[in-house]
Design brief:
Length: about 750
């Protein structure tokens, strides 16, 4: 006797055969700016190439494909034959090329001018390279805000894909999501497809028949329905264990065979064909949203922990399926609150974009050479807007130093080129006070043609960005260690993901042992010029550990500041009255930058020290982008001219007058020269993060802390000066091709947006 489940499936199938359904397989392929070349190549070999090989053989099928501009430029340079094959499939009508914003930015974080500019330039590039007519676009990370409708339409876009979660958040029921809708803003109309979350979780993780069953159910309930799968192409080979599952075990071949076998009622199609052959279901207005997991990740950590606890408790409740559609997390913009480092990059990007826009207004109608220069700057800016460095979820994101470094590399390149336009390639020097980080408090910038330094008097007088222009490197692209919701899994030592291919959202894999012992959190930003008062007998073990006691109120305190300028020097002087272990003190510190210099002159004055009273004072510096664990990255004693060990070494030097850090790969040296004998502690800073590959500890910065037992002179004062000198002569001798030497690849007219 046939089982009830089989009879039900058979009825659904028989009904579906009389009710055709349109099925859109829409893939999104992307690798971020700054990712390693071998990662691009591995993704190509594991995902993009084998998928295309299998798809080409399934001649009855069609798909929609979005490839980010970052990836397409790499593919065109390294594997142009792959791009040529896609162009041929596009001409045949088997592949619809989907456009987007060129370098895959979160549209909600861009000024309107950059949103429209990125979209138009990518449309032009795709048209010129592939001969494709672009009508639709991919929304990066499906981060949506209602006002985007106007900009997308103004950029020439007719339709896009979001998740069904967006539509459910607007109040639509699952049974209403079987086609596309029209949304509107200021009279502009945009068509929007809901991508299916059920399909995202079964493709490619469940056996192919599950997809056929789902489509049969949908077709039986909604004649002429349109079902859209829209998700990452890396799920087909690059995500952990998927290469073996999708290709070696033949999942994709079987999946395509099933679609072909049921082509009498499953019509694989493109988004364009669905638009041209079916009417919209109706009109909808969608809220600020992204896919469900993204809204959860954007919550503050303590709220995310509470959210996950409540979800876990409710999963066994019969009411939960009905309730869940009304439960939502946060919005993407709050990643800039959760991770202040993201906000620092964002504010820096906004500043460069504003300056470029002002320069374009000034240069409007000027000679063509200026247009070429501005186009180079614009390309650097657009690359710096690539989204992956600005947030964190199941992928490494902001925790990956090479991605943060890439953002700053392009921002510094753009900023330096703007400065050269302003100063006609002459040496220059400036100081400026402004709200650079958009927190309604003033910051200070000191800059010349070699260095740029940003200080925050209201936040401990810290240096929070230090740019080395010649190699386009920010020495303070650091990351503060903070709690994450998934750290509970690390503490409890959850097991691995097993032998089955699973979604990255369900995997628990440890890439290193003992990660629970490496969880540690910071009580201050890991920047430079952080002023500490330690216990007298404090050791490097205590300072680098979780239980170091802070006796002063200077590290995060508000300093008053004054700016001094001359033709040859600019200086910011900052002062704060506070206390050390209950004793009142005043610290005055100054940072001076001279014309054409690669050295910061730092001076400290401590006043109000009681006679015969000692204070253990230390100044914390952090240096990022100079990773540990390599023999060509090391400490040096500048007096004895000897190596002290790799940059990952814990060093406890006594009675020394300086230390140097060398990164031969970057061609960079950083030297601290101290005016009075000092103890110096160094240690590496690591943060425990999760990525698609599992949990791991990632090097974030090298901590260097000169420290002294401070006693007063006859006037109750104590002073020290520190020279922070940056040396890029190694890089300059090698002639490293840095980011500010670029060749524009935009196909668009460079004169406009």
């Amino acid at each position: 006797m046939l089982s009830l489940a089989f009879r039900t499936h058979r009825r659904q199938h028989d009904s579906a055969m009389n009710q055709p359904i349109r099925f859109v397989l829409a893939l999104h392929n992307h690798q971020p700016i700054g990712n390693f070349d071998h990662v691009f190549e591995q993704a190509y070999q594991d995902s993009y190439l084998p998928f295309l090989d299998v798809f080409e053989r399934a001649s009855e099928l069609k798909l929609a494909l979005h490839t980010s501009g970052c990836l397409f430029e790499w593919l065109d340079h390294h594997h142009p034959e792959y791009v040529d094959r896609l162009a041929a499939l596009s001409r045949e009508g088997r592949v619809e090329i989907i456009g987007g914003a060129f370098y895959e930015p979160i549209l909600a974080m861009l000024p309107q001018r950059d949103r429209i500019g990125q979209i138009r330039r990518y449309t032009d590039w795709l048209g010129e390279r592939l001969g494709a007519t672009i009508r639709g676009m991919w929304i990066p990370e499906r981060v949506w805000e209602p006002g985007l409708t106007r900009d997308l339409v103004d950029a020439g876009i007719e339709y896009t894909i979001l998740d069904d979660y967006h539509f459910k958040s607007a109040g639509l029921a699952p049974e209403e999501l079987h086609g596309y809708y029209v949304t509107e803003d200021e009279g502009r109309l945009l068509k929007v497809f809901p991508g299916s979350e059920p399909l995202r979780y079964v493709i490619p993780f469940a056996e192919p028949g599950k997809t056929i069953e789902y489509l049969a159910q949908l077709a039986a309930a909604h004649p002429q329905a349109v079902a859209v799968f829209g998700d990452d192409g890396e799920k087909f080979g690059t995500w952990p264990d998927t290469k073996r599952h999708v290709y070696d075990n033949g999942w994709l071949e079987q999946f395509f065979a099933q679609l072909v076998a049921h082509r009498d009622w499953i019509c694989t199609t493109t988004l364009a064909e669905a638009i041209d052959n079916t009417p919209p279901i109706g009109k909808v207005y969608l809220p600020n949203c992204s896919y469900r997991e993204m809204t959860e990740w954007s919550l503050p950590t303590d709220r995310l922990v509470e959210y996950e606890r409540l979800v876990h408790e409710m999963e066994g409740d019969a009411r939960w399926p009905a309730l869940r559609q009304f439960v939502s997390g946060g919005i993407w913009r709050n990643f800039k609150i959760k991770y202040p480092e993201s906000d620092e990059m964002y504010c820096r990007m906004i500043g460069v974009s504003r300056r470029l826009s002002e320069r374009e207004e000034v240069r409007a109608g000027s000679n063509g050479q200026s247009d070429v220069q501005l186009e180079k700057i614009r390309r650097e800016l657009y690359q710096a807007q690539c989204n992956c460095s600005y947030w964190h979820g199941a992928f490494g994101g902001i925790y990956l130093p090479h991605l943060r470094n890439a953002v700053y590399e392009h921002l510094i390149a753009a900023d330096s080129m703007l400065e050269r336009l302003d100063h006609d390639d002459q040496d220059w020097l400036k100081a400026e006070v402004s709200d650079f980080n958009l927190d309604n408090r003033p910051e200070v910038q000191l800059a010349n043609n070699r260095l740029a330094v940003w200080l925050a008097p209201a936040r401990g007088g810290q240096i929070y960005e230090l740019d080395v222009r010649s190699i386009c490197h920010n020495l303070l692209a650091t990351l503060t260690r903070r709690p994450e919701a998934y750290h509970e899994k690390v503490r409890h030592g959850a097991g691995g993901g097993g032998d089955n291919c699973a979604s990255i959202h369900d995997r628990v894999v440890f890439k290193q042992e003992g990660l629970d012992q490496r969880l540690q959190y910071d009580d201050h930003p890991r920047k430079s010029l952080i002023d500490h008062f330690f216990e007298l007998e404090t050791s490097i073990d205590a300072v680098s550990g979780p239980d170091c006691r802070e006796g002063g109120d200077f590290a995060l305190g508000e300093y008053e500041s004054r700016l001094r300028r001359s033709d040859q020097r600019v200086q910011v002087k900052m002062s704060k009255a506070g206390n050390s272990w209950g004793q009142p003190l005043t610290i005055t510190k100054s940072v001076t930058l001279s014309a054409s210099s690669s050295t910061l002159d730092i001076a400290y004055l401590i006043e109000g020290i009681q006679k015969d009273h000692q204070h253990h004072f230390g100044v914390e510096f952090n240096f990022s982008g100079m990773p540990a664990g390599a023999d060509d990255r090391y400490f040096v004693d500048p007096v004895r001219n000897v190596r002290l060990g790799q940059l990952g070494e814990r060093i406890d030097e006594q009675n020394t007058v300086g230390i140097g850090l060398v990164d031969e790969w970057l061609g960079l040296g950083v030297n601290l020269e101290i005016s009075r004998p000092s103890g110096i502690w160094t240690y590496p800073l690591e943060a425990v993060s999760q990525s698609e590959g599992g949990f791991e500890a990632i090097h974030q910065s090298v901590v260097v802390i000169p420290h002294w037992l401070v006693t007063a002179d006859a006037e109750g004062r104590w002073t020290v000066s520190i020279k922070l000198a940056v040396d890029t002569s190694r890089a300059e001798r090698r002639g490293i091709p840095h980011a500010h030497v670029v060749t524009p690849s935009f196909a668009a007219n460079p004169a406009g947006t």
